[in-house]
Amino acid sequence: MKKVDTLDELIATIKKTDNIPTLPKVLSKISEETDNDNFSIKNIGELMSRDVSLSARILRIVNSPFYGFPQRIYSINHAIVLLGSNVLKSIIISTSVFTAMKEAMTGLSEHSLFCAFTAKHIANALEILKKDDIRAKKINGIDQDMMFSAGLLHDIGKIIIATTFKEDFKKIIQIATESKKKLSDIEHDVLNISHDQLGYMLIKEWNLPPSIYLPIKYHHNVSLAEDFKAETAILNLADFLTRALGIGFSGSSYLEAINQDALKILGVDVNFIKSVIEEIYSYKDELYIFD
Question: Exposure string (b/e) for 149-160, b if CB count within 10 Å is 16 or more?
Fold first, then answer.
């Protein structure tokens, strides 16, 4: 395939393909339900119960040590209340594409889930830090579950590249194994666009909130983010730490230096990062959730 010259041409090509995961029907119905101000947990639970494997996955997540609820959750309705609608949507989307992830790139689903855990943990750690550190007090209103969703979906653009531009994807991965260069830069060289931008377009089209799709768009270019700067910085750090710890595989073994803009935006230092690493490493044992 020839190098794509314009973004419009690329988008048109993507829309014609049958390989891109479409929004699951159950999510469409759940979205319709949650868009109603008086949405019913019971109705959502009934929709969820039609997909036994999906319901089981939701219960595994809410009962994982990562979430740390004191009592075991057996009811899907109770799980929906605890997770919230946006996390629920993200899990359903991820369920629909994780099979494609595993086929496209071994280790990508593990990388995505660990990144989700890490992003949520960093958001929580910042909230605790605010009590004692004046630098962190400027970070307000970070939704930890939104960060989980952003982490879970941040590399979904790689599925678009892997399934729509297979030969280019092989070329990108080959270059990545032979060079010390960011994967997103290699994607730009080959396709004139990268997975973060493609993921942003897809998630926005699926009507998830900007607090999810904007951090995804800028998670490799933190300094360009105008809105949700802190969320973008958190996602950047979560992705960096996941790759630094060697959890799963994101397409390249090259690891750039930690993003100083992200540290500055969040008002944290290396000691904060070290404490995060010590606490998140055990999350690797939770990656069975999406099996």
Answer: bbbbbbbbbbbb
The residue assigned the tokens 């996602």 is 235
**Contact predicate 290/95, CB 8 Å:** yes
> Candidates 3.10.180.10, 2.30.42.10, 2.40.30.20, 1.10.3210.10; correct CATH number of 7-22+106-290?
1.10.3210.10
Give the domain ranges of the chain: 7-22+106-290
In the block, residue with structure tokens 């993507």: 14
Give pTM, 2 decimals: 0.84
pLDDT tens for the 291 residues of the chain, in order: 444 444 556 666 655 555 555 556 676 777 677 667 677 888 888 887 877 777 887 888 888 877 778 889 999 889 888 888 777 777 777 776 666 667 778 889 889 989 998 999 999 998 887 766 655 555 667 888 889 889 989 998 998 888 888 899 999 999 999 988 999 999 999 988 899 999 998 888 777 889 999 999 999 999 999 999 999 999 999 999 999 999 999 999 899 999 999 999 998 999 999 999 999 998 888 777 666
Question: Count of alpha carbons within 13 Å of 24, Cβ hemisphere only?
Answer: 19
User: 3-state DSSP helix/strand/coil percent for the chain, to nearest 5?
Assistant: 70, 0, 30
DSSP for 29-90 reads: HHHHHHTSTT--HHHHHHHHHT-HHHHHHHHHHHTSTTT--SS----HHHHHHHH-HHHHHH
Q: Which residue do the tokens 């060697």 mark?
A: 246
Burial of 20 (0-12, 13-18, 19+ CB in 10 A): middle
Burial class (CB in 10 A: 0-12, 13-18, 19+), 138: exposed
Amino acid, res. 42: K
